[in-house]
């Protein structure tokens, strides 16, 4: 009986991205020989070799899917290039994930829980589930719902035109973030398991952050209060090479065996190590910037109106939250979190303090330069007269004695300036 094979979506991603260049395999081998990026080259070579060992019919199926997805990607980008954040081949969604995606596709339909329960249909093995992630932050001419409906209808027609088995799931970023605000993280997990076909940087950021979050929670779940994606990615300013900024808040309110600082340092070192491991697992080259805060420090920074913390609360998207981050975010949005009078006074006075510090530094630099600008030529004049170079303290008196009293070449006021400086 022939052996049954199922598609490995990680290997498919490698297959799709690597095969874009017909000489890619040759280039990988050359990389290994010349020791250029040997780790990445060795990993890709190993994965391509594994794909080459698949049965011929499976390889042919992969090539067919690849060709169809290339056509789908090209047509979608031609139509909506500036809106498309990413396109990815998804593994077959679980029933609850599929239900959630379908509900988001058709928000006006009643939820499944409100409808009579039907017998679940077996998954169609020929279906090609494709995620299309859309940036709706610049939607001004129509509402987000209208934009979503329009995009969904056109993307679905493109998929059907290429192959009726292509099942696009159009998802707008604001919906994805709202799911995170509502503590629904299933879609993040689905994206982490998907194979990117087109990515402007968001898909890989979600993938590495989700994998890193899973590693951190598995090890330190009882300590982790919040895991938040922040920075340019959630502000709509990211590029494919942007760093991936994540913030982790650790609960230090019940620490008994070590100091709070020791807890932070210990967990921070391990968490950053996990970030490096997540980068190696995903082969994502963008730097994962990890900021670790203990809860007490985070609270103090909030009271002190730290602009960095305020920005994090305003723009951050929680990938995990125990009910701390989101209430603070909502309170900030409602205007309930305000800087204290003390914090305002500190900020008001900080400008003057900085100006005074700058003036002192400029004076130090300027006076030192002026001092040597006067002293060095004075010593040179004495050496020209035939006197051995004196110490700085002796220079003024010798200049007065020789060039003021004896030779009468200088006025005494110039010597006084040298002595005063």
Question: What do these coordinates show?
Answer:
Helix content is 59%, strand content 12%. It is built from 17 helices and 8 strands. It has helices at 9-18, 24-34, 38-52, 56-80, 95-105, 144-162, 173-181, 186-193, 202-220, 232-235, 260-282, 295-303, 307-315, 325-333, 341-385, 392-406, 412-420, and strands at 84-89, 128-134, 166-172, 195-199, 224-230, 244-250, 288-294, 317-321. The strands form 2 sheets. Strands 3-2-1-4 form a 4-stranded mixed sheet, with helices on both faces. Strand 6 (244-250), helix 11 (260-282) and strand 7 (288-294) form a beta-alpha-beta unit. The longest helix has 45 residues, at 341-385. It starts with 8 loop residues before the first helix and ends with a helix. Mean pLDDT is 79; it is low at 1-8, 17-36 and 111-115.
Descriptive tags:
alpha/beta, four-stranded mixed beta sheet, elongated, 17 helices, disordered N terminus, 12% strand, single chain, 421 residues, 59% helix
Question: What's the arrangement of secondary structure elements?
Answer:
Layout: H1 9-18, H2 24-34, H3 38-52, H4 56-80, E1 84-89, H5 95-105, E2 128-134, H6 144-162, E3 166-172, H7 173-181, H8 186-193, E4 195-199, H9 202-220, E5 224-230, H10 232-235, E6 244-250, H11 260-282, E7 288-294, H12 295-303, H13 307-315, E8 317-321, H14 325-333, H15 341-385, H16 392-406, H17 412-420
Parallel strand pairs: 2-3, 6-7
Antiparallel strand pairs: 1-2, 1-4, 5-6, 5-8
Helix pairs in contact: 1-3, 2-3, 4-6, 8-9, 9-11, 15-16, 16-17
């Amino acid at each position: 009986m022939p052996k049954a094979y199922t598609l490995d979506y990680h290997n498919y991603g490698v297959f799709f991205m690597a095969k874009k260049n017909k000489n890619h395999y040759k280039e990988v081998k050359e990389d290994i020989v010349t020791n250029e990026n040997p780790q990445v080259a060795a990993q890709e070579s190993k994965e391509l070799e594994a794909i080459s060992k698949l049965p011929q019919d499976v390889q042919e199926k992969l090539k067919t899917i690849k060709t169809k997805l290339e056509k789908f990607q090209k047509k979608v980008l031609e139509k909506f290039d500036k809106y498309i954040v990413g396109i990815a081949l998804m593994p077959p969604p679980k029933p609850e994930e599929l239900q959630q995606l379908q509900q988001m596709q058709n928000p006006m339909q009643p939820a499944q829980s409100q409808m009579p329960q039907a017998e679940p249909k077996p998954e169609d093995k020929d279906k090609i589930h494709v995620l299309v992630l859309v940036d709706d932050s610049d939607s001004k001419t129509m509402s987000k719902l209208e934009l979503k409906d329009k995009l969904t209808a056109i993307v679905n027609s493109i998929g059907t035109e290429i192959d009726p088995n292509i099942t696009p799931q159009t998802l707008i970023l604001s919906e994805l973030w709202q799911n995170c605000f509502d503590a629904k993280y299933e879609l993040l997990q689905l994206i982490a398991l998907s194979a990117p076909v087109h990515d402007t940087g968001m898909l890989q950021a979600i993938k590495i952050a989700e994998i890193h979050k899973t590693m951190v929670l598995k090890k330190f779940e009882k300590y982790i209060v919040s895991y938040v994606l922040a920075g340019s990615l959630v502000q709509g300013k990211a590029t494919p090479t942007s760093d991936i900024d994540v913030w982790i808040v650790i609960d230090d309110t019940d620490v008994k065996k070590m100091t709070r600082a020791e807890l932070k340092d210990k967990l921070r070192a391990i968490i950053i190590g996990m970030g490096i491991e997540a980068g190696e697992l995903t082969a994502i080259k963008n730097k994962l910037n990890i900021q670790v805060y203990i809860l007490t420090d985070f609270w103090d920074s909030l009271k002190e109106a730290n602009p960095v913390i305020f920005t994090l609360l305003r723009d951050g998207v929680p990938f995990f939250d125990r009910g701390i981050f989101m209430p603070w975010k909502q309170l900030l949005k409602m205007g309930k979190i305000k800087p204290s009078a003390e914090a305002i006074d500190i900020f008001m006075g900080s400008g003057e303090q900085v100006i005074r510090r700058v003036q002192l530094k400029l004076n130090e630099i300027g006076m030192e330069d002026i001092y040597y600008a006067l002293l060095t030529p004075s010593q040179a004049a004495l050496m020209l007269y035939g006197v051995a170079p004196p110490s700085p303290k002796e220079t003024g008196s010798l200049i007065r004695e020789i060039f003021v009293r004896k030779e009468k070449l200088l006025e005494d006021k110039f010597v006084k300036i040298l002595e005063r400086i």
